[in-house]
Specification:
With 486 residues, the protein is of the alpha/beta class. Helices cover 37% and strands 16% of the residues. It has 2 domains: 6-200, 3-Layer(aba) Sandwich (Rossmann fold); 210-471, UDP-N-acetylmuramoyl-L-alanine:D-glutamate ligase. The longest helix has 19 residues, at 23-41.
């Protein structure tokens, strides 16, 4: 599945029309899907109020109103004059069934469900004046709110806060990226009859799904042994950061690594898992890291001021490497790219800002663009951690669909480093290891509630998360609607 920007969705709609799919027919399918989803969301509801704008989003709302009326519900529709294109035809068809009242006379009293069809994804500026007042009234009405495609006003403020959002044809950034996703409530993806080939355009970001991630899982033959399923070397640790490399080692083991060695400064007193091999180092320049015979490395977790020196020592091995935390400096990442070492970097917004020489707020505002710029500038595979995490390398992008706010806890990223390194050690290319590692890491987090999660809980949940993925017991956070449902 692909993530659609507003521009990409408009292009897909236009291409569908060129291929012989009438736009009015697509609007009819969209409106009917919205009506069915709103009815199913509140099966006890009897009274609907539809607030419709002038454009296609409003047209979808008008079609939904007609279907709700035909199904016997009490429906009041409020819309401005002057609908355009297909929305004008949708209005004309609706007027044969019921009166359309002026939007300025919007009356929400007695509504069980409000259908928000004011604005879609093409809104370029914040709502003001009467529009902002309507949004405020919808939000304070006390009724359930179902939004057509996206809650009106997004990605700006003010915006409608929906209980249900019916995403039409494909998911948009507002359905995926926080804080906007929080305004969508429950999300239902409704197909509207677009040709399948338009929904899988390879130039759009991939949304990670269970089936594609399950196909990447490394398999263990019956004669597997600890040296044949992936050996990981974790390089990191400092006096003040002893937990990070230990958590990375635990993540690597729980993700399937057969043997993990932890190299750390001798004075740091790092305590790796009992199963790990310890490799204390007096000076990184003299470290005998080759003794680990690793197939992949995780470098930088808790490295402190010595993170750069540790990364330079690890570079001599020229093995697939994950760089995190204290190894994430421009000169280090460029050195790995220059040496043609397969590399994954896993910055959070602050570390990404350091690499891009910008502010963390700028990274967080546009994580897709930031991740792609990192991949382009440093010629590497990027895992930009956030809500959600974005994976990018030159020419392709993916967005994770697992995980929850409980994972915002110290050490969570260290566990992720070990997971991705384990998959690289098992033979996956950086792109596949990064996507699978991020997805499985988030899936492990989804076993817990919204708070109180510890990083080691994440690591311990990884085998169960993998089992669920293998058995097909994983569902995306959005629901799938049915085309032409009744």
């Amino acid at each position: 599945m692909r993530l659609f920007t507003p521009e990409a969705m408009r292009a897909a709609d236009a291409r569908a029309v060129e291929l012989g799919y009438p736009s009015l027919l697509l609007m009819e399918a969209a409106g009917r899907a919205v009506a069915a989803a709103a009815r199913a969301f509140r099966p006890e509801a009897r009274s609907f109020v539809v607030a419709a704008g002038k454009g296609n989003n409003g047209g979808d709302g008008l079609v939904a109103a007609r279907w709700l009326r035909m199904w016997g519900f009490k429906v009041r529709v409020f819309a401005p004059q002057g609908h355009r294109g297909d929305a004008a035809q949708a209005r004309a068809a609706l007027e044969t069934h019921l009166e359309i009242e002026p939007l300025e006379a919007l009356d929400l009293r007695g509504a069980d469900v409000i259908l928000d069809a004011l604005f879609g994804t093409g809104l370029h500026r914040p709502l003001e004046g009467a529009w902002a007042d309507i949004v405020a009234r919808i939000n304070s009405s006390g009724a359930s709110v179902a939004a057509v495609d996206v809650p009106s006003g997004l990605p700006h403020t003010p915006h409608v806060k929906a209980d249900l959002t019916v995403a039409l044809a494909g998911l948009k950034p507002a359905h995926v990226f926080y804080p906007h996703r929080a305004a969508c409530g429950k999300i239902q993806l409704a197909p509207i009859g677009l040709p399948p080939e338009l929904l899988e355009a390879s130039d759009l970001p991939e949304l990670l799904e269970p089936a594609s991630m399950r196909a990447l899982l490394p398999q263990r033959p019956g004669d597997a042994h600890k040296g044949s399923v992936g050996r990981v070397l974790v390089v990191g640790g400092a006096v003040e950061y002893t937990g990070a490399p230990a958590l990375a080692a635990l993540g690597a083991y729980r993700a399937g690594a057969g043997l993990v060695t932890v190299a750390y400064p001798a004075e740091a007193r790092v305590t790796p898992p009992l199963e790990a091999v310890r490799l204390p180092v007096s000076r990184w320049q003299d470290a005998r890291l080759h003794e680990a015979r690793a197939e992949a490395l995780a470098v930088g977790m808790g490295g402190g001021k010595g993170g750069g020196a540790a990364a330079r020592a690890a570079l001599k091995l020229k093995k697939p490497t994950l760089l995190d935390a204290d190894a994430l400096y421009p000169e280090v990442v460029r050195a790995y790219a220059g040496a043609a070492v397969p590399t994954v970097i896993t910055p959070h917004p602050g570390e990404a800002a350091r690499l891009l020489e910008t502010g963390a707020d700028a990274v967080a505002r546009d994580p897709l663009r930031s991740a792609c710029e990192l991949a382009r500038r440093f010629r590497t595979t990027v895992v930009l951690k956030g809500g959600p995490t974005v994976i990018c390398e030159p020419g392709r992008t993916a967005v994770n669909t697992t995980g929850n706010p409980a994972m915002a806890t110290g050490g969570s990223g260290d566990v992720l480093s070990g997971v991705i390194a384990a998959f690289m050690a098992a033979g996956l290319e950086p792109w596949d290891a990064a996507r699978l590692g991020v997805y499985l890491h988030g899936l492990a987090g989804d076993h817990y509630g919204r708070t109180g999660l510890l990083a080691r809980d994440l690591a311990e949940a990884l085998p169960a998360a993998r089992t669920n993925l293998e058995k097909g017991n994983c569902e995306p956070y959005w629901e799938m609607g049915l085309l032409n449902q009744h």
